[in-house]
Amino acid sequence: MTRRTDPRTTRLPVPARELPAFTPVPRRCVRHDGWTPERQQAFIEALADTGSVAAACRTVNMSAEGAYYLRRQPGAESFRTAWQSALDLGVQRLEDVAMERALNGIDVPVYSYGALIGTRKSYNDRLLMFLLRNRAPERFGKHGSDLKGLNAVGKMEKARLKKKWRKEWEAEQRQTSPAEVRSRIDAKLEGVRRAVEARRAREWQQMSEETRAAWDRFKQLRDADFERLKANAEFRRFHDQGPEDEEDIRARYPRAKRPEPEPEVFPKWHGLRDSTWD
Q: Could you tell me which of 6, 90, 1 has the C-alpha nearest to residue 53?
């Protein structure tokens, strides 16, 4: 008689080559019921199997509080790295278990009047659609690649890369002085300016003589319009300030015209002795 196992509680064996190698956390006193190197290795293996810290602690008969305390101790850098790697591996294996359950379903017991009469196969369509949207978002996602962010492994990888890039950027900032940053920016701007000048030179060589003459005439008219607008703007600015010598301004800006003031209109009041009173 073969014993059936529950896929929800069965641990998947992790190949030895996939287990993260680490240096055990040194302890001041070695106890047979403490965090020995062997128990630390078994904890990392169980964490890679299940992806759960609580389940891994139950496997080695230790508390989760003790595991987190061990993680904070001096000299636990390698242990923390192995912890994170085991969690990543455990999440991947949990995805495999979820895919197995979504494809093949699970056996649900059927009872009648309190007695077990058999089992039936139950499928989770929502779990299957969730996995399809994460593993093939371009085909099954509502918003294309945006749903790829729902993948737990992708989120953890993004967070890891973000921390790595942040550390590299901070190290680079500490090693780079403001003068070097400015010199790099100036060098990039100079490269852009040279590229623009080279592109304009190539375009100028491709123009015909008529196009070049038209372009030169256009620049002359544009400069003349600019000077005229500039003169009018300066004249209006001096006019608003109320200059004392208007002749000097007209001599300086002969083409600008000063607007004529509007005549003041006063109401006409009639007196009793006014001959025009009707």
A: 90
